[in-house]
Structure formats: structure tokens, C-alpha cells
Amino acid sequence: MSSVRIQVINPNTSLAMTETIGAAARAVAAPGTEILAVCPSAGVPSIEGHFDEAIAAVGVLEQIKKGQEQGVEGT
């Protein structure tokens, strides 16, 4: 069985939350699945409303593009 790479994107810039999300995803991932937990380097630390959502969307799109460049099979 070949390895699968899945990218999990935290839409805010909280590294601590990103690590927590990554740990949760790894705990339930199938054997051989590589989980890449990422977050934008710029944006909002917490999404509190529509304005924050709009700002965060740019960072999420950037992370999707990076994942595609790294050969991620799922986002």
C-alpha cells in the first residue's frame, strides 16, 4: 500500500492550534497516511466574523497551492 499525503489547513495563524489539529488528524489517519498540518503565515490569529473569514480565505488558498506543489493528494 502506498503512502497518501493529506494536507489539513488551519485557516488562522495559530501554530498551537495547528499542532493540535495535526495531532488529532494523525490519531485517526489510516496507517501509511502522512498528515501535513499547516496554517497561513499571515492573516488572523482567530476567526471571529465575516471580515476575519475574508482575510483568512487568502491564506487558505495559498496553502492549497503549496500543497498541490508538494504533491498532496487531499486537502
Entry keywords:
75 residues
Protein architecture, described:
The mean pLDDT is 94. Helix 1 links the parallel strand 1 and strand 2. A two-stranded parallel ribbon has the order 1-2. It is of the alpha+beta class. It is globular and about 40 Å long.
The average pLDDT value, as a whole number, equals 94
Strand content: 15-25%
Mind describing the biggest β-sheet? Answer: 2 strands, parallel
Helix percentage range: 40-55%
Give the overall silhouette: globular
Number of helices: 2
Cα gyration radius (Å): 13 Å
As laid out across the biggest beta sheet, the strand order is: 1-2
Topology:
Blueprint: E1 4-9, H1 15-28, E2 33-38, H2 50-69
Give a brief description.
With 75 residues, the chain is of the alpha+beta class. The protein has helices at 15-28, 50-69; strands spanning 4-9, 33-38. Strand 1 (4-9), helix 1 and strand 2 (33-38) form a beta-alpha-beta unit.
